[in-house]
Amino acid sequence: MFNRHFNFPSLWKWLLVGGAVGVTVGMPAVVFQFLLQTTSMFLLESLAGVSAGHPAGEHPLLKLPRREQVLPWLILLLPAAGGLIAGYLVNRFAPEAKGHGTDAAIDAYHRKQGQIRQRVPIVKLFASVVTLSAGGSGGREGPIAQIGAGVGSFIAQRFGLGAKTQRMLVAVGMAAGIGAIFRAPLASALFAAEVLYSGMELESEVILPGIIASILSYSIYCSWFGFGPIFGVVPEWGFSSPVELIGYLALALVVGVGALLYVNTFYGLTRFFDKLPVSPYLKPAVGGLLTGLIGLGLWTLTQNQESLAVLSTGYGILQKILTGDGLALGIGFLLLVALGKILTTSLTIGSGGSAGVFGPSMVIGGTLGAAVGLAMHALSPVLAPHPAAFMIVGMAGFFAAAANAPLSTLIMVSELTGNYELLIPSMWVCAVAFLVGRPWTLYKSQVSSRLASPAHFGEYAPEILSSSLVSEVFKASRKFMAIPEALPISQVFDQATRSSQRIFPVVSPTGKLLGFFRLNDLTTALHLPPEEASQTLAKDIIVPDRATVRLNDPVQKALNVMANLNVDELLVTTDDDPRTVCGIVTGADIMLHYSRQYSRIKHGGIPGTEETDASLGVR
């Protein structure tokens, strides 16, 4: 009888793997927080004299004396020094560890079968500690999400659990890491399931193992740093009048527009740094220097240490607002901090620094919310009986709009503050702000739905692609790079890193295909002894397997070859000569073709219903 309703092998599987991920992620979360707290106190408080406060619920394991006077030159130089060190760590050992982390984990889930190199969590941990403790603006969510995702990927690889389980454990690891560091086990499981998609979808299979993993990692983490909400005991401000919805509507519009400004500034500066003709090793230092300049400018202008919330995590100002002291700073000051935090976070992470975007979103949303709360209270106390409550609701609304994750954010902010009395206004603000910010997102690796995810491609593909040919799918106009067989490995690296390809054909002097290599094959070759590397040519790193399909091969064959070789790009050859390469077909090409066919069937061929290249992330 019970077997009819419960799949016991599956339940035990998720209990075991979810538990393994939770226990394994718990200790790295402890190490990350301890290193971050200790180095932040030493660099920012003991050396620079910066003290913007800490959340009441976070108790440092080690206390260091604080310098009484601020040293302005250290405010300027510390973020630059941190960026320089983080830039070296990331670019030397794991380039995928740069940026805000969560997006890389989402990308690994959808497009890389959950594959994350084992060194990534270690590099991410130290690079993020250096970035944040030196004053770089960012949060802890991104680093711990990528660390947790890396741990989940490692466990799946170590025990040979297969691609589907590996992808799942990447998301479960995200949940475990965030659940520990933010003491929000329920919200983190929902977040890991929701943040994968920009549309109104959840990866439901992630939730149960995510909850198990989050509870265990949370328990381990809190055994060291204490249980309870991060912001301690928060007054139980509630919702008592429908009239308050008018004030909260104004808040929703402000944080929705603020989220649009944040996302566009973030990616605008990211594009600027991508094009900047400076070594990638130095770009985070440039971003750190500009971050320090903004922090120094605000401190000089205001002569108030609360303005330094634009550096590092900045949670202290939120604690001040909750206790009521921060409201005395005034509307102008709070708006200045919000704008400054948008700029410093965009500069720090957009330049290649390593930190998260969730924490800054809380600071930006919280200060905007407090400013709106003060304005509504001045207009009429009925609209905002408790201006500080607008801070809590503003945090939720801002990130819901910026990340397209309203449900988990709603629960997350309640768990962060321990206040569940504001769920009604939070729901109202999250819904409206989400609609305002709908077209944009901080997480560019999100896909619109399960239908658009390569991770679920095989679930829907067989019927649609059974009669499709490679010639119908691949883009003949797409330029591709072929590597001459005699090209030295150093020149191969220079050319390959400038290309968006992931697979490269190696050709003879007459242009005939000899084989191929992937970027990771090239990385391995670069670690050869110098004398051996100097004599290595492109033909020496050729992979013996043939990652090719012909123009008139069935698309299903292309999918099978991709799966067998664990690649998402294949070389396309002519039907007449299997050694003449005419292009490259990607998993995204197949997904786009499939999605268009599916939409055509689903909507009866109605024009305009198909997925676009941009929505699916196709180059």
Q: Which CATH architecture of the largest domain would you pick?
A: Orthogonal Bundle
The CATH superfamily title of the largest domain? Clc chloride channel
Number of strands: 6
CATH topology descriptor of the largest domain: Clc chloride channel
User: What share of residues are in beta strands?
Assistant: under 5%
Low confidence ranges: 1-8, 602-619
Helix content: 55-70%
What gyration radius follows from the Cα positions, in whole Å? 25 Å
The main sheet comes to: 3 strands, mixed
Structural write-up:
The protein is mainly alpha-helical. It has three domains: about 220 residues, Orthogonal Bundle (Clc chloride channel), CATH 1.10.3080.10; about 190 residues, Clc chloride channel (Orthogonal Bundle); about 170 residues, CBS-domain. The protein is globular, with a radius of gyration of 25 Å. Helix 7 crosses helix 8. Helices cover about 60% and strands about 5% of the residues. The relative contact order is 0.10. The protein has a three-stranded mixed sheet.
